[in-house]
């Protein structure tokens, strides 16, 4: 566990990078235990989740649905392991519960579900049917604005997910209504389930397309922690239009044989691969929630 869980006080970049590395280790251990789940996307987004949850979001783990909270919608629900690990390290759920990923009767389902449906505190909606998250985020942003609420809304999408037409309808709606309390973060890793994104459906010029829908477009190296923090601040400061951050990441970040390889989209490591991955990620000062290899 980390100190000062109720306040986003982690401002030291080395500390934030260490947290992100620990979250990657947690993801590996979760997948090794469950022997099921997604590896590539969760590893790639660990830095962005760390920046949000340990520095930027207005949240309170012991009161996950407080009225003035920032909203986070994970439209790419299949990268749930990075969210679960982040929520556990932030104090929303016990670390020990990470052992129950994808287990029968457990809360950590393959795609996230909210607390009210036997899901996880801090999760707003069930997600996993790609393309729907942004529509919900736009509706939430519009409702908050009508009620003159200060909350900010974040929606995390995948670049492969942009193949879904509903996302473009939501983008058009957000741009038309100038929802400046909305920030979209796109995991731009150029990988999706069965190939590179340009092989499945060319997205470029992606930044220009978002601009055409009246979004303020920001681009960032999704593994440069300081740049990510600055970019989130810049996005939140935009007035008169919604913002989108194109976060350029590497699928499988931190594990050499997984990096930038779309074939790791939905595949967990086997025991030998897990040993290599955890050795490359190296132990952190925060400690693993379980020693998967103890007694093996």
What would you say this structure looks like, in words?
This protein has 296 residues and is an alpha/beta fold. It has one domain (13-281): Rossmann fold. Helix content is 37%, strand content 11%. It has helices at 13-34, 40-44, 46-56, 80-90, 133-146, 165-176, 197-200, 206-212, 225-236, 271-281, and strands at 71-74, 153-158, 182-188, 191-192, 195-196, 216-221, 243-248. The protein has a 5-stranded parallel β-sheet, sandwiched between helices. Strand 6, helix 9 and strand 7 form a beta-alpha-beta unit. Helix 1 packs across helix 4 (80-90). The longest helix is centred in the N-terminal third of the chain and has 22 residues, at 13-34. 47% of the residues are buried. Residues 1-7 have low confidence and may be disordered.
List keywords for this structure.
disordered N terminus; two-stranded antiparallel sheet; globular; 11% strand; 296 residues; alpha/beta; 5-stranded parallel sheet; 10 helices; Rossmann fold
**CATH homologous superfamily descriptor:** Thiamin diphosphate (ThDP)-binding fold, Pyr/PP domains
The assigned CATH architecture is 3-Layer(aba) Sandwich
Strand content: 5-15%
Fold-level CATH name: Rossmann fold
The low-confidence runs, each spanning 5 or more residues with pLDDT under 50, are 1-7
Overall outline: globular
| Domain module count | 1
Main sheet strand line-up: 1-2-3-7-6
- Given the helix and strand composition, which structural class is it? alpha/beta
Largest sheet: 5 strands, parallel
Number of helical regions: 10
- List the secondary-structure elements in sequence, H or E: HHHEHHEHEEEHHEHEH
């Amino acid at each position: 566990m980390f100190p000062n869980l109720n306040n986003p006080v982690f401002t030291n970049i080395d500390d934030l990078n260490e947290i992100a590395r620990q979250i990657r280790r947690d993801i590996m251990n979760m997948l090794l235990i469950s022997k099921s789940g997604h590896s590539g996307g969760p590893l790639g987004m660990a830095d962005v989740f760390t920046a949000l949850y340990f520095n930027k979001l207005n949240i309170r783990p012991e009161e996950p649905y407080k009225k003035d909270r920032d909203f986070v919608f994970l439209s790419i629900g299949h990268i749930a392991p990075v969210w679960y690990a982040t929520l556990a390290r932030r104090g929303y759920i016990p670390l020990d519960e990470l052992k129950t990923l994808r287990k029968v009767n457990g809360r950590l389902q393959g795609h996230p579900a909210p607390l009210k449906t036997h899901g996880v505190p801090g999760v707003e909606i069930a997600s996993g049917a790609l393309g729907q998250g942004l529509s919900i985020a736009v509706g939430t942003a519009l409702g908050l604005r009508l009620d003159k609420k200060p909350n900010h809304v974040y929606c995390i999408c995948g670049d492969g997910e942009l193949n879904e037409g509903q996302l473009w309808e939501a983008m058009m709606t957000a741009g038309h209504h100038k929802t400046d309390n909305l920030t979209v973060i796109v995991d731009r890793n150029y990988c999706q389930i069965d190939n590179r994104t340009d092989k499945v459906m060319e997205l470029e010029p992606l930044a220009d397309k978002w601009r055409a829908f009246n979004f303020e477009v920001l681009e960032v190296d999704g593994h440069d922690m300081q740049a990510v923090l600055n970019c989130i601040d810049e996005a939140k400061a935009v007035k008169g239009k919604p913002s989108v951050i194109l976060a350029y990441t590497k699928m499988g970040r931190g594990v050499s044989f997984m990096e930038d390889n779309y074939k790791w989209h939905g595949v967990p490591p086997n025991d030998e691969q897990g040993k290599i991955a955890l050795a490359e990620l190296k132990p952190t000062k925060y400690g693993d929630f379980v020693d998967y290899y103890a007694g093996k």
